[in-house]
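Quick one, tokens below. Sequence please?
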């Protein structure tokens, strides 16, 4: 722990909105430096997972889908929320199967990331799965529509650098994989 920077002490949390996938909280915390109280907003949500599914042909299984936040199509690896009581690697395999129809077994962790510590309190668990294979139909909910896109691993760096892959959490997972496998 730092000798200069100390954690703040939370003294009050108020839920401002419960929005199914996250809660907006107003947190009051005391500065360890001044002793003064300050208000902050925290987005309280469950942990997330991303899985980098790679076929025996060295192709990554991506899903293309429409995203309401960006109002655009997005090229992403399978991922989503960890259900209550679910462990992250099981959630990653489930999300892969649901979104792409590919079976991901023997997942290897690429580590855990903090999506945005300024406002989010959750973690992103990242995985790679080698030797994935098509196994089932895509299982989209009524609010989802995904399309599978297979991309050679050799093209990932170029796609990240030129912006064809621009989802920050997907990019972080891919860069970590590329770094570990250089």
């Amino acid at each position: 722990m730092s000798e200069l920077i100390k954690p703040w002490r939370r003294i009050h949390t108020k839920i401002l909105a419960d929005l199914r996938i996250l809660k907006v909280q107003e947190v009051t915390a005391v500065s360890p430096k001044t002793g003064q109280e300050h208000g902050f907003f925290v987005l309280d949500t469950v942990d997330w997972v991303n899985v980098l599914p790679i076929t025996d042909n060295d192709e990554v299984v991506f899903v293309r889908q429409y995203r309401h936040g960006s109002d655009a199509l997005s090229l992403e690896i399978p991922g989503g929320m960890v259900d209550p009581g679910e462990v992250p690697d099981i959630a990653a395999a489930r999300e892969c199967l649901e979104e792409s129809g590919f079976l991901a077994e023997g997942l290897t962790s690429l580590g855990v990331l903090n999506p945005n510590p300024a406002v989010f309190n959750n973690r992103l668990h990242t995985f790679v799965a080698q030797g994935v294979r098509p196994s089932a139909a895509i299982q989209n909910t009524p609010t989802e529509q995904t399309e599978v896109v297979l991309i050679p691993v050799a093209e990932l760096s170029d796609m990240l650098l030129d912006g064809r892959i621009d989802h920050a959490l997907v990019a972080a997972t891919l860069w970590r994989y590329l770094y570990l496998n250089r």
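DSSP finds three helices and twelve strands in the chain. Residues 9-44 form one domain.
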